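Figure 6 in text form: structure in, sequence out.
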């Protein structure tokens, strides 16, 4: 997380700003059909994580129904050997209602949150795009992203991205339900992000209270 100076950010990774949400023109990166002949899946939100913690990848993907429309979303966490160590949702659960979307903007940056509940535990996959500091020359801003796992308002696990996430915000918003439990209710689920009226405590990103 944090800011990065010019030349220090990872090349090839990106985060779409609020003004670009309705202007997505790229085609998502699709996976390869497996031996079980699963439908072709496309990445909608992914990032690399710390390989020293045996967690190398967080990925939210979906199956394209038609142009720019996705369903059957799935989140996967993989280990260093590419083994899936966690996957959601399980068979029979509708991903449209299981994944909850919200986004907001403010002084601290543009925040995208995807939340779901699995066996009484809250999971929030988030990305905060931090704007450049106008008082610091050559500051290019930065990013804070990852997965926060909490239960009964207490953090039980946290996985940080080590790069800016690769994501398609409008596709996710259309394929998910609104997270009405966010501080701004349905206002944070529209095409444009809601402007935050209060300061964002970045130390509690993803924590469900």
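Output sequence:
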């Amino acid at each position: 997380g944090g800011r990065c100076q010019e030349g220090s950010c990872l090349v090839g990774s990106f985060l779409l700003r609020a003004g670009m949400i309705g202007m997505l023109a790229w085609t998502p990166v699709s996976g390869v059909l497996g031996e079980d002949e699963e439908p072709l899946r496309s990445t909608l939100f992914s990032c690399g994580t710390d390989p020293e913690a045996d967690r190398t990848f967080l990925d939210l993907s979906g199956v394209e129904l038609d142009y720019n429309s996705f369903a059957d979303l799935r989140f996967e966490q993989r280990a260093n050997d590419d083994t899936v160590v966690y996957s959601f949702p399980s068979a029979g659960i509708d991903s449209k209602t299981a994944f909850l979307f919200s986004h907001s903007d403010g002084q601290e940056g543009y925040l995208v949150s995807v939340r779901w509940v699995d066996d009484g535990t809250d999971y929030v996959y988030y990305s905060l795009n931090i704007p450049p500091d106008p008082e610091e020359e050559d500051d290019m801003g930065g990013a804070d992203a990852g997965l926060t796992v909490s239960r009964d308002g207490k953090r039980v696990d946290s996985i940080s991205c080590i790069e800016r996430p690769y994501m398609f915000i409008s596709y996710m918003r259309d394929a998910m339900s609104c997270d009405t439990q966010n501080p701004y209710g349905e206002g944070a689920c529209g095409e444009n992000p809601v402007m935050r009226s209060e300061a964002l405590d970045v130390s509690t990103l993803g924590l469900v209270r």
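Caption detail: Residues 1-34 have pLDDT under 50 and may be disordered.
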